[in-house]
Structures
1.
Amino acid sequence: GESVGLHLPTLSVQEGDNSIINCAYSNSASDYFIWYKQESGKGPQFIIDIRSNMDKRQGQRVTVLLNKTVKHLSLQIAATQPGDSAVYFCAEPYNPGTASKLTFGTGTRLQVTL
Amino acid sequence: GAVVSQHPSWVICKSGTSVKIECRSLDFQATTMFWYRQFPKQSLMLMATSNEGSKATYEQGVEKDKFLINHASLTLSTLTVTSAHPEDSSFYICSASRGGSSYNEQFFGPGTRLTVL
């Protein structure tokens, strides 16, 4: 698959503020994206996903936005909490249209300050 | 549900020895398991895809004779790092998939920290 990358390596946010983590992808055929949260020393944890037929999807305190025109997606975390401190990765299947192995972006470290 | 475990969670070994890491799907049958390697402050890099009962498919640049993968049952896959060297020190993470067409069926284990002295 083609690369999935992130703009910002580290994001510092004050507790209670909203966080926005960005991800750019290069394959215009990409049809599915996943956001993972990885805490220090642990495996990735699924947060939310979105298919290319959607522009927006909401979960609990999280929203993913997909802009296919510019091949960009973002993860928004509302009312950021200290427990949100982690590295966040976007990912997509190597082969669009299949439930296959994943390509991970470079990751963004979210630091929540008190 | 959909819990994946790894054992051990961390291991320290001497250079030249072999280390086996287990990945288990605890409450579901995993037709496919994936092995990733993650260096500090870097992303996950896929090493290989393992299907139950068949040979693993390795990614380009991953030595299959050095990283032996066995997926003998639908709930267990093992990764053996043979003749480990300090440059093999890394965080190894497995994931397991039930298969089927739903994309969000890949569940990750907690990872194994390997340190080779």
Note: Chain B has a mean pLDDT of 92.
2.
Amino acid sequence: AQSVTQPDIHITVSEGASLELRCNYSYGATPYLFWYVQSPGQGLQLLLKYFSGDTLVQGIKGFEAEFKRSQSSFNLRKPSVHWSDAAEYFCAVGARNTDKLIFGTGTRLQVFP
Amino acid sequence: DADVTQTPRNRITKTGKRIMLECSQTKGHDRMYWYRQDPGLGLRLIYYSFDVKDINKGEISDGYSVSRQAQAKFSLSLESAIPNQTALYFCATSIPVGSSEGADTQYFGPGTRLTVL
């Protein structure tokens, strides 16, 4: 069965610092992988996605993620965090041809000035 | 992005009441989903629909029902609300089959915050 683990419930960083949010998945084949962001009081917005090809994926708002098959990971990164990045971040995995996503429990990012 | 709308945005109701949450989309997507979000649990799938005649249970469908009135409308009902159904509910859509974007990219509405007293 598919599963997604986001080991960090809450992360705090200073504005301008680099960021890495961890995501590990369990799936028997190559999955679809997603990162979504949820700002306070808002719905989820797609940051980036991996389907195939280049394992380093660029997304919106300066985010990127790298698919590492050997580690079953899809960590999200940003070189310099802005105060507006404070939000909750969800990693999700989808099995090909099923059209359902399994979400992680989320990582809440707090940014200090 | 107002392509996926949910009504109401907030609702307070009492135990035992019937309540309906509505979702409409203008994206022309075939597939629609209902999730609930609880702190520390992420999003969990309640029901999903691949077209008007195809409705499927998700992982936590007990206590809920749905209706796909048209391609653009997907409603979630709580026949007899209970306090542990207090949560944030999201509707989502995904792209049509065969789209060049690839499957499984889901687009979310703004959510409905439901409180059951």
Note: Chain B touches chain A through 26 residues (CB under 8 Å).
